[in-house]
């Protein structure tokens, strides 16, 4: 470990992934890369929370089935979501006879899962690990902001929480993309209090982690085909690129954001997508397939998370944020 950066000596492989998205996600630019499109936000359940749990369980099960592994061959499931006490992940894992590590770093949980799972596989403690996250627009909206029944108008700086889930199997086997390095994020707080402006709150954390990664790994922007953030959205992405430019790094030609990619922003979606399911779907769907096809040689995923709660927001607290970076090679 070099300060906050890890180099994975044994380079765990992504053996398989599975993604599931709602109707809005399926009709977006990356919809054709999503394995399963659900045309009913309830997914056959009576509540949005149960739907979110079912989506995450489905993605995990599909990822395992693609590997032909039995549940007993999976050393652990590392998963998280946005709901109180990460109930979607906990309840989803009732369906599996597999050890469960529940984690929470808001929308950055996918890269956190990759890092924790990668450490377990790289260290030789287990051979296979599931890394998974998910979210649901309707369950997140009424937890963090307003009752859905009020039909509140969303402000221009708002993002749309992604409905869906993604799972990946990290393994000592296989020929898939390699997890080669990671940089841990730290909590960064620039004093943003607007709960609708997640991009502005999270951009400083993304910049802090990427700067630390460059310093510790000695990589430069041009060493990456893409520098991918999780869900800064259009506005947050501009702030992120400006912050990096101020520090002497021009990433404008290599930076893309999962939140900007998943929806047709110009048509109806303000700043784009957010939520733990955002980077889970876009990375495990779109970018995983691009890496497998060797269209990209090396990319870094910097999933970003706003560490707020409905209680902290109501009490006038600012929004601390975090971002973790995971480096993958084809």
Supply database-style keywords.
330 residues; alpha/beta; Peroxisomal Thiolase, Chain A, domain 1; six-stranded mixed beta sheet
Q: How would you explain this protein's 3D organization?
A:
It contains 11 helices and 14 strands. It folds into 2 domains: 9-171, Peroxisomal Thiolase, Chain A, domain 1 (3-Layer(aba) Sandwich); 178-329, Stage V sporulation protein AD (Peroxisomal Thiolase, Chain A, domain 1, 3-Layer(aba) Sandwich), CATH 3.40.47.40. The protein is globular. The protein is 35% helix and 22% strand. The longest helix is centred in the first third of the chain and has 20 residues, at 48-67. The two termini are 23 Å apart. It has 330 residues and is α/β, with parallel strands linked by helices. Strands 1-9-14-13-10-11 form a 6-stranded mixed sheet, sandwiched between helices. It has a 6-stranded mixed sheet with strand order 3-2-8-6-4-5, with helices on both faces.
* Largest β-sheet summary: 6 strands, mixed
- The CATH architecture of the largest domain comes to 3-Layer(aba) Sandwich
The chain-level structural class is: alpha/beta
The average pLDDT is 94
Give the number of domains.
Answer: 2
Give the full name of the CATH homologous superfamily of the largest domain: Stage V sporulation protein AD
Show the helix and strand layout.
Layout: E1 5-7, E2 13-21, H1 23-26, E3 36-37, H2 48-67, E4 76-80, H3 87-92, E5 100-102, H4 109-122, E6 128-135, H5 137-144, E7 160-161, E8 164-171, E9 178-183, H6 198-217, E10 226-229, H7 233-246, E11 255-257, H8 258-262, H9 265-268, E12 273-274, H10 276-292, E13 298-306, H11 310-314, E14 321-329
Parallel strand pairs: 2-3, 4-5, 4-6, 7-12, 10-11, 10-13
Antiparallel strand pairs: 1-9, 2-8, 6-8, 9-14, 13-14
Helix pairs in contact: 6-7
